[in-house]
């Protein structure tokens, strides 16, 4: 922060690599897209905001990366809020329902009260029908046989035609648009301007790029992350990948167990696991236990064997 | 605010008239409802919070109404934020899409990724099909003939049956719930817990009880207002009706015009209206002008004639 | 909203009249300032966002002003959220305490834990000491005699010197900055980056440009409004002045009374005022009544006489 | 979620162990306190909200703890938002400045525009003056000698007397309260009602119970956590301690290093650390590197030796 008030004139901060793709749609799903309409700030804005706190003069550029990593690592979120981006997106409404749950964004959505609905829903191809996951109550895994899928796809196409015939018929009969739309399918496309600051965008991406997120919104999140944010704020993106996407968290209990296991004190580890209720044997078969299972997955990542 | 710290013990604040209906569903639409699950605070909490600012001791109960009216009139919103309510609602998804745009609430919604979708969409009866409004691009007005409506209702019933057959078939074939649901109609019911503070709830009600709001969500808003909020915080509700629902706002230009008209200076009023571009004559016919029209509606409420 | 996806490339939206003052400090109080560091959007962005709802093609530029006025008049706030601005401000902490109560902004403030406090508090000149308002419990009105004020100013200068001597002495003795600062005066200057969208900025300005706001923060608000927002989004600013700053609201009761008075039905007006408890006579003296008084002020604006 | 709508009547959820301390002040610092004024919800409300998503009937109580732990572990934050608490606090303004930065709470603060300021600032005793930390630019560590501290405390007491004499003199002379207060010290006490949901309260506690938080606000946070939240929602509190307070996060790079070290591949670990720039030798002395140092602290917790 300057000690006097003889400030130089400023120019708006721009990012060349993002300017190159401004307005350009990135395709997602069969008919959706994401494109940048406007933005504000850069990696430099994060650094600048953080340095307000220090009251310090100009620092070496070479230290910017370290500072951004420090901020990300220690959850100092406010400097990331100094960057803002506005996207124009085309998304099926069922994915949009999940999207809009993030309350910190500004939104202007296409209105099917004012206008005729977009005449397009996501069409599922014969090899895109996903099985219900068995391990994960909310997810999907693997695909139906293409021959079986084909039956569903044909059936869907017919259904869509039927629905839009009915919709158009209602409109022709004079029914209000706000009511005529009521039987459009959930996967009908909508469009919106969506504006959000970088901190909240990264939070959105963390949740929606995750393997537990539904495939459709995950595709949007990946496109936003890899095609847009990475170009916009490369240092923040690198720190985000390292400290959020690729990081692992160990609870207090897990730290205690890991200390024993990584020091080859396997018996003590088993005792502790029993004590906290993670390990029980019945007829020499071990119980199933969700927290233990998640811990075992992390042990595997560390190339350590489970001691029970 | 007490000058010493010998505080008395407290009991949770309760409102008898609200306790009487706790958990009881109020029916909305053909299969929806709203019911209170929990709440916190009362008219007294608003008064208590406002008086923190004054550092004053206990005041007469008779002044509470005046204080609440003062706060509402002057947009002192924070005392109203001290009250909180949690509702359990069952709403068609197209109304829920509008509902959820209010970002200040806490929400837990029924998930059709985890569970089979609710097997129910809003059914429109033969006398409930609304015409597109002509005066208002986003609204509806009047109803189709029942005989015409009947055709649409029969068609809709058939469509719903078809859609749920397809949904159930997909589920049987093992398709993931998150994908099988994609062609359910927008008016499929969902359920949610919805928790919000009184200030933001009143803002929601102001927008959604308005005649410009879509009929469906307006019915929910009216039920929440008249059946629930009125019982919960009767003084705040009265002030809300007087200062928000039944109030009229006059812009700077409108105040200038109203001054002239209510003082019978009609010629001057016409001159002013011309000057600010609200009145133009062509071939002795007056132009159409939206702001002027809205002002004329307020003149009519005041039983004053327009001077042009 | 375009019907196909052959979007043209975009350039960031810039506003020439704002670019001219980018980085330039506007002085406020004896040592404070406000300056624009970065921004995003313009009047055009508001229009663009609003038109998403209509799904319409390009409209005539001449209609933009009308659209922006319509949005402001009907409290369609989301299009205004599409504009964002980042300011660098230097503000005394007692004004900053009020400022920061607006929760919708992003903030990075100078930290007196990391750095030595800014060696400057607001100095009140001999003719700037304000009297406690009598009509308004929270305000001020008029000024002390300059000779009396001079005594206070000299006393203050001595106090400030004493406080900073003590602060510097603590720092020299090795006391932590976070603790050494505890006795600095509330009017010590702080600095911050403050980023907010246009809708919330206008809400801030409406409250803080108001005559009830404390003089110090009011000066900041006026500078932001008249020097910055007016240059940035001139159409939105004009609508804001007309529909927010210069508008008057009449409650349901006030509309009823105004109808009678502007139609010269004074007796009926008095009866109604008695009925709703606004007018009571005792010994032929009228009571004092806050709501009635506020209404009388609006009557005066309309050049109408009160009938009681 | 019930399949029919024959809901039973409800009673407000209460928590006996919290009701016992309702209204009772817990002392913090020399003259501050925290007390619960009202609350809504319990551990049961978290479970209830989470189960909306499953559409499931009543589950065994024994599974509630596991569900709450699952939600906390996987950052499913919305169920925790269903609980709300309102506190009455008395806090020095410099701590309140930090407190109020958490934007998700509802606040009504004592106004020194309306009322005479609270005649009390934090008094630092002779053995409470803390040294500036050397390792941590923003913190403190250790205490000044009591004899040195005594000088500072006496000086402070004199200063406080002087300041309040000046404040009272201004008030007597008729200076407006809003201006007279300008030279009160930052550590003057203020009071407020502060209302927040459990999710955001836990976020506040995580940051403010942390050793990097300033001692003063840390004392408030610990009191709120250990005396209030623990009584209110014991299951959520246990999960919070295990997964937030006592957990450790390892970045992608750290996981790679830990895998090698815990598998006794020390040479490879050193190579990797060099490769990513964490380890450099100059004249056989290792460089200082902040990220590496933080990683070494975690290794120590795991009782593992650093390999470089």
Task: Give me a quick take on this structure.
The first copy, chain A, has 308 residues and is an alpha+beta fold. In chain A, 44% of the residues lie in helices and 16% in strands. In chain A, strands 1-2-3-7-4 form a five-stranded antiparallel beta sheet.
Give the topology.
4 copies of one chain form a homotetramer.
Chain A: H1 16-19, E1 26-28, E2 32-40, H2 43-52, H3 64-73, E3 84-92, H4 93-99, E4 106-109, E5 130-132, E6 140-143, H5 146-173, H6 177-180, E7 189-197, H7 198-208, H8 215-232, H9 234-245, E8 248-250, H10 252-262, H11 266-275, E9 281-282, E10 285-286, H12 290-301
Helix pairs in contact in A: 2-3, 3-9, 7-8, 8-9, 10-11
Features:
homotetramer, 308 residues, alpha+beta, Gyrase A, domain 2, five-stranded antiparallel sheet, two-stranded antiparallel sheet, 12 helices, 44% helix, flat
């Amino acid at each position: 922060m300057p000690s006097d008030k003889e400030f130089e004139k400023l120019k708006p901060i721009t990012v060349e690599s993002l300017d190159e793709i401004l307005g350009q749609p990135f395709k997602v799903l069969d008919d959706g897209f994401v494109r940048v309409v406007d933005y504000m700030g850069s990696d430099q804005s994060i650094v600048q905001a953080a340095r307000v706190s220090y009251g310090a003069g100009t620092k070496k550029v070479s230290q910017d990366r370290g500072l951004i990593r420090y901020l990300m690592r220690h959850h100092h979120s406010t400097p990331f809020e100094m960057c803002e981006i506005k996207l124009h997106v085309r998304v099926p409404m069922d994915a949009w329902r999940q999207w809009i749950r993030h309350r910190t964004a500004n939104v202007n959505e296409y209105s099917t009260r004012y206008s005729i609905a977009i005449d397009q829903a996501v069409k599922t191809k014969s090899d895109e029908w996903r099985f219900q996951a068995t391990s994960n109550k909310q997810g999907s895994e693997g695909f139906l046989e293409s021959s079986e899928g084909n039956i569903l796809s044909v059936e869907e196409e017919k259904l869509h035609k039927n629905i839009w015939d009915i919709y158009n018929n209602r409109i022709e009969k004079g029914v209000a648009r706000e009511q005529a739309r009521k039987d459009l399918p959930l996967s009908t496309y909508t469009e919106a301007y969506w504006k959000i600051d970088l901190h909240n965008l990264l939070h959105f991406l963390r949740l929606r790029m995750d393997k537990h997120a539904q495939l459709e919104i995950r595709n949007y999140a990946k496109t936003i992350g890899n095609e847009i944010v990475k170009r916009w704020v490369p240092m923040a993106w690198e720190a985000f990948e390292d400290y959020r996407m690729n990081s692992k968290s160990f609870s207090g209990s897990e730290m205690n167990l890991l200390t024993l296991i990584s020091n080859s004190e396997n018996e003590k580890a088993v005792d502790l696991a029993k004590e906290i209720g993670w390990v029980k044997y019945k007829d020499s078969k071990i119980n199933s236990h969700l927290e233990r299972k998640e811990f075992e997955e992390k042990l595997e990542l560390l190339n350590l064997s489970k001691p029970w």
